[in-house]
Amino acid sequence: MITGEDLILACSAIGAGLAVIAGIGPGIGQGIAAGYAASAVGRNPGAKSDITSTMLLGQAVAETTGLYGLLIAFLLLFVKPLI
Amino acid sequence: MELVSTAGAAVASNDLGFMIKGLFKYELFGQELWITTTHVSILIIDVVLITLFLLTKKKMKNPDEVPKGFQNVVELIVEMLDNMVKGSLGDNAHKFANYIGSIFIFIFISNISGIFGLRPPTADYGVTFPLGILSFLIIQFNNVKHNKFGAVKSLMDPIPLFLPVNIIGEIAVPISLSLRLFGNVLSGTVMMALIYGLLPVFLRFGIPSVLHVYFDLFAGAIQTYVFCMLTMTYVNDKISDA
Predict the structure, then answer these.
(1) Is residue B73 part of a domain?
(2) Which residues, in sequence order, are CB contacts of B135 under 8 Å at separation 6+?
C-alpha cells in the first residue's frame, strides 16, 4: 500500500536526480576554461600564475549554477520540505 | 536552510554523520534554541586562531633580524595575503588587507577542519550567510563612500526602469557568495560521510585520506581564494572607476 508520504518521498528522490543534471553545464564550461588556460600557458609560460588564478576564479563562478542544482537535491533528499 | 531542524530528537532516523547535530537545548524569550556542532567547531577554531595570534604578537615584539622558524612561517603567510590583496586592489590594498586577510584565514581553517574530524562550520548556511552579508556591507559602504550620489545613480543605470533589476543584482551578490561557499563545503562533507559509510571498518584508515586531500584541502583552499577574490573584485568594481 503506497501512502501519500511514500509517493512524495519517491518523487523527491526522482526530483533530486533530475536536479543534479544541472552539473552538466558547469562541467562543460569548466573544461572549456581549463582547455583555453592550458593553451594560454603554452603560448605564454611566463604568465602561468596569472592565468591559473583567472581560470580558477572563472571556474568557481561557473560552478555556482551547478551547486544550486546540488543544493536543491540536498534539500529534497534530507530536509524533505514537501512532507 | 533548516538543516538544523532535525537536531536532537528525530535525528536518529537518517543519521549519516554529516547533519548538524544539536548538543544542548536552551530557551530564550520562548524560542527553542540549540547549541550545535557548528558552535563547537567555531569555538575550537577560534581558540586555535587566537592562540596563534597571541603567539605571533609575543614573537613580533622583539623579532629576529633574520627570520627563522615560527616567525618565518608567519611572515610568509602575511606576505602572501598582502600580495594577493595588492594584486587585485592595487593602491587601495592597505585599506582592505586586514579584512581580507582575516576572513581568508578564518574560512581556510574552517574549510580544512574536516581533516581534523570537526564538522566544517562553513558547511552551515548560518555561518556563510553572515560572511556574505559582511562582504555585501563592505562593498556597499565603499560604493557610497566613493561614489556619493553616483551609487544611487548607478542603480538606475541606463534608464530608471532598470531600478528593480539592478537592486536584485546587488542583493544577489551576498547570496551567491555565501551559497557558493556553503554548497562546495557541504558537498565535500556529504561525500566524505558517504564514503565513510560505504567502506568497511578496517578500510576506514588510510584510503579516505587521499579523498580528504581533494575534498577538504583542495576544494577548501580554492573556495577560500574564490570568496576573497570575488569580494575584492566587487569592491574594486565600485571604487576604481572615477
Answers:
(1) yes
(2) B173, B174, B177, B227, B231, B234
> Which of A56, A70, A79 is nearest residue B187 as measured by Cβ atoms?
A70
For residue A24, CA distances in Å to B56, B141, B186 come to: 46, 37, 19
C-alpha–C-alpha distance, residues B127 and B182, integer Å: 9
Chain A residues touching residue B180 (CB < 8 angstroms): 60, 63-64, 67
Structural domain tally of chain B? 1
Cβ–Cβ of A63/B229 closer than 8 Å?
no
Q: For residue B204, what is its C-alpha cell?
A: 576506514
B174 grid coordinates: 551576498
Q: Which domain holds residue B168?
A: 9-240
Query: Percent of chain B beyond pLDDT 90?
Result: 26
Closest CA to B3 of B136, B128, B111, B125: B125
List pLDDT tens digits, range B141-155: 999 988 888 888 888
Q: CA B179, CA A57: separation in Å to the nearest integer?
A: 16
In a domain, B36, yes or no: yes
Could you tell me the domains of chain A? Answer: 4-79 (1.20.20.10)
Q: Write the pLDDT tens digit of every residue in B154-189.
A: 888 788 888 888 899 899 999 999 999 999 898 888
Whether B44 is covered by a domain: the verdict is yes
| Residue A48: count of CB within 10 angstroms of its CB | 12
Residue B83 lies in a domain: yes
Closest-CA distance of chain A to residue B151, Å? 25
> If you write DSSP's letter for every residue of A20-62 in order, what string do you get?
GGGGHHHHHHHHHHHHHHHHHHHH-GGGHHHHHHHHHHHHHHH
